[in-house]
Amino acid sequence: MLPSPLLELPSPLLEAAFNQSPAPMLMLGPTSEAVIVAVSDALLARVGRSREQLVGRTLFEAFPANPEDEDDNGVAALHDSLARVRESGRAHALVAQRYPVEVRTDDGQMRYEERFWDAVNAPVFDETGKLLCILHSSTDVTARVSAERALQGCAIEARVAAERAESQRRRLDAVLNAAPVGIVVSDARGGVRRTNRAHHRLWGHPQPAVRSVDDFADWTGHWADGGPRSGQRLEAQEWPTARVLRGEDASHDIIRIRRFDDPETSRVCLMSAAPVTDDQGRRVGAVLAEMDITEQVRAENELREADRRKDEFLAMLAHELRNPLAPIGAAADLLALGSADPEHVRQTSAIIARQVRHMTGLVDDLLDVSRVTRGLVRLEKSRLDAKRIIAEAVEQVRPLIEQRGHRMTIRLLADPAIVFGDSKRLVQVVANLLTNAAKYTPERGEIGIELSSEDDRLQIAVTDTGIGMAPELVDRVFDLFSQAERTSDRSQGGLGIGLALVRRLLELHDGTISASSPGPGHGSRFTICLPRLDPAGAELADGAAPLLPPETGQGLSVLVVDDNDDAAQVLAMFVEMIGHHATVEHNSRDALARAKRERPQVCLLDIGLPDIDGIELARRLRASPETADATLIAITGYGRDQDRADALEAGFDHHFVKPVDTARLADVLQRASH
Q1: Which of 387, 413, 489, 591 has the most neighbouring CB atoms within 10 Å?
Q2: Model confidence pLDDT, tens digit, residues 186-222
Q3: HEC profile for 142-187?
Q4: How many Cα atoms occupy the beta-carbon half-sphere of 245 within 13 Å?
Q5: Is the pTM of this model over 0.70?
């Protein structure tokens, strides 16, 4: 029997219901010491202890924190929860609380095993309102199997309680209402005799009366078990209680239910029913346990969808990266044939340049998304004219628009349209939308861009007459990897991550973006919304000066150091073509010796050299009197802000990321020659 006088039980019913409950439960004394006065069998089995080892000890002596686990905050959380129950007189729940438990291994050693629990601490009062004890019930949610076993155990516990505890209804209700799952007790005809609070929270109010299984027709549920019947509505005779009363098994039903107080809201439940029998084994009723698993199902579906989209994206990424390799390889083979026709060489070179730019764009898109999503992008904000942003974006995309024969309409405000932001990034946002419009609109289509104002917000709308979007795609078009589904026609190329990047860049500007489409084949509209500033104020930021095109230099002596023979030779050829003198070395030691002899004015250094890396090579060149004043230019595949900072700290004057922007390199060499 449970200890007296803490709980004076008129019958063994509550003791049996308590001890046989599948949910691990404790009865705790009402004081802050939380002395364990009763332990359910399920808890003893779960923790591998005996009742004698626990009863009479404080809760936190019996279940201490793991001193070697810095993340073990279960004791503190449980302590606070019990204090809240004592102070407020109301139940308190702990959801998915991490609380490692000591278990005995096969070799007899004790170790802590990580567990997660849903726990409820509920006060139990006598008829005068005095706190008798605190009922601590918990559900191990570490694995679904444990949850299902706990659910079936709850049904058994509720069946026993329903058969024998009518005369003790109030105290039995206290135990039932402490359970974290819905419980329904029915008679032999299916009429509902008793329910708990969790059931009413799950279904909402008011609920129709159920006098027999035929009344289940008023309850809306659809199968959600992933089988052939998924999505079908349950008939009255298909509900778990009805099937159990017919002698069928209904121990694991997954059903999507519709709430009564809010029919638009549905919940996914794991339901388990068991028969209630008399001493002769006759079915005299049924008990049903309901567990809300909506969030678990949603999380599983999201993980499956994310995994599917990831696989599609990786397949598309492989396809997009292979595409430019074919013309590059063919062009390289043509050049290897040694044709002396300058026009053929020019055309072949142009093909390689275009495909390299395309591959660079793909890699830049990936890096941009990675930097933005990890918060590594630093914006250089200033007051900007939105009309100038639009003009620069249109200028970038104009060649593609003209190539595809589109007609473009531009509508701008007459009044000043000032925003605060990073010019480069906002131009990138608008250019991305225009590029998408041009790509996904069949040739000779119509593209529009309009700047408008509403209150203190500016709107930039980009419209097209292209392939449009289905409603389900509009809802997720800004998610990573979803853009690839916009059309199966991938002839325009691209990774389909640009819109995810657009949304994140706008969020960094306190802006938003929305999409709409009448449907496939009827075009799309993307609308940017940004805070509008007062036109009066500081002067607008100047636009960046355009890079100078490559010109013949003043005959600089340039040392190229790269362990990749092809990369070094191509870079040296370019340096020679724009009027300078290039020498090549493939390792740092030979480069130091040559630099000491020939005193180069400029050194183009690869960072990833095999013997001495480019950073250390730069430091030694700076320390040498022969090259202390040389212009040092880093050539590297690493483009993070930290990589740039490391290069400049080592003595580099400039930092270039591969593939090298030749126009910018030519400009740097031209300036160095003056």
Answers
A1: 591
A2: 999 999 988 888 888 889 888 888 999 999 999 999 9
A3: CCHHHHHHHHHHHHHHHHHHHHHCHHHHHHHHHHHHHCCCEEEEEE
A4: 23
A5: no
